[in-house]
Amino acid sequence: MRRSIFILFLMMALHLSYSAAVRAQRSTEQVLVEEVLRDLQGNILPFWVKYSPDPKGGFYGTIVTGN
Fold first, then answer.
1. How far is 24 from 17, CA to CA, in rounded Å?
2. Spatial separation of the C-alpha atoms in residues 36 and 48, rounded to whole Å
3. pLDDT in tens, 34-59
4. What distances in angstroms separate CA 29 from CA 16, 26, 34, 39, 66, one per listed residue?
5. Calpha distance 49→55 (Å, rounded)
6. CA-to-CA distance for 23 and 47, rounded, in angstroms?
7. Which residues of 13-35 are buried (b: 16+ CB within 10 A; e: fewer)?
8. Residue 59, beta-bridge partner list
9. In the chain, where the domains are located
10. Alpha-carbon gap, residue 9 to 15, rounded angstroms
11. What is the phi-psi region of residue 57: left when phi exceeds 0, alpha when psi lies from -120 to 50, beta otherwise?
12. Which residues 6+ apart lie within 8 Å of 63 measured at CB?
């Protein structure tokens, strides 16, 4: 009886620690997604919307800055 209770307790403890790890990973992934979207929408896309259209038609694929 004691052995089965110990095994049940051990299984529950392992499940709880696994669940916490999965939640932490999802949280980390969500933070990464939010950071990438914020950078894309706040910096990358506005830059290319402003500077990539060619006045003669079409779009520039690269932009060379003067040094």
1. 11
2. 16
3. 999 999 999 999 988 888 888 898 88
4. 20, 5, 9, 15, 38
5. 13
6. 35
7. eeeeeeeeeeeeeeeeeeeeeee
8. 53
9. 1-56
10. 10
11. left
12. 51, 52
